[in-house]
Amino acid sequence: MSFTISSAKTLAESWFEETLDDALILIWGNEFLQRIVSNKLWLKKTQVFENVEANTPTAIAAGFVRSIKVEDSNDVEYSGYQIKNGNISFNVAGTYGLTYVEYPDKLADITKAFPLPDAFEYPLAEFLIFKYYNFELDDEDSKQASEEYEQRFTYSLKKLYGELEIDSESDSFQVTMRW
Fold this sequence. Notes:
This protein is an alpha+beta fold and 179 residues long. The protein has two domains: 3-40 and 105-163, no CATH class; 43-102, no CATH class. Helices cover 36% and strands 23% of the residues. A three-stranded antiparallel β-sheet has the order 2-7-4, with no helix packed on it. The protein has a three-stranded antiparallel β-sheet with strand order 3-6-5, with no helix packed on it. The protein is elongated.
């Protein structure tokens, strides 16, 4: 269910007659994960805040990107909280669980498992070729190839997002109704 940057590199190298440098591939693979892929696909974690006092700022985990939901100790969704400057505070004392999206750590080497489904191996390979040609912009052919692979990986991602029912153009949201 996962792949490596190395396997995407091998795939990319099978499409054209160049050898890609492992150090650059690692940088570009991390860029793809952290900047290109929608954060809706990043790992979700839960941080538990036990016996917190009302209206007291408490530090959120360092990798926090955005909240998904907060539940009280009865597993009921809770909306009486504020997140500000890396801290969360609750209007009522108690125990709460914050489910959030975590910023992905950089991968240390190209053989480490990539934290995305296998379907992202092809867009990553296309992105690596785009970055290679973009890096090697020394003639008109490289520029055209760069633009072609940029369009390819962008199209591949949009297609995947559609299949995964993720909107690649804008964030959607749902308003929870209260009666």
